[in-house]
Amino acid sequence: MHTWHSLVYHGDEWFAAYACIPSNAVSPIWFSVGHAVELYLKAAHTKLFGDINAAIKHGHRIKDLWDACRQENPNFMKGYAFRDHVFSVDFLDGSVFKHLSSEDQLHFIENQSLYVVFKHLQDLKYLGLPWKSRSGPMALGFVHPDPYWTQFVRTLRTHLEYPPRDHADRILQMLELGCLPPDAAHYLQALY
What we know:
Low-confidence stretches: none
Radius of gyration: 17 Å
Structural class: mainly alpha
Distance between the termini: 28 Å
Strand content: under 5%
């Protein structure tokens, strides 16, 4: 039987894959981390609501998953908060700062990766091609691998109380087996 643990296990694999991708492979970088986040949030949704099928039906609409989890548990990932007016602007057009207050600009800069993944996950594997979620030119700066994601994933795994005593930690297994490139292993060690 599939449980929320299964989703975390697969999220761990996608997060490890993200850490291993060469820095110039932009589409796989963004999609891999986005898909990992999607799986982790589906795990959180499944744990909260007890229905893996309901979580899976959300598809790539991970902000909907997030909102459902926050509505059910207001303390869910409390250190991370979306600002709907920031989420509603086209923050990839390069002139996003014209539309945001200085406080919102700082918030966006600190959380840009999360906004991009939550709003555009369905299209991140198509960088350089037409998207469903927006049109026109875009500007997207990023760091790879991004320390933001280790903090986010660590916080989410802690919230999930993952791994439980009776389950293996997939990322820790890969680290212990020594099967990851040294840079990826170093990056993933930050989870612990």
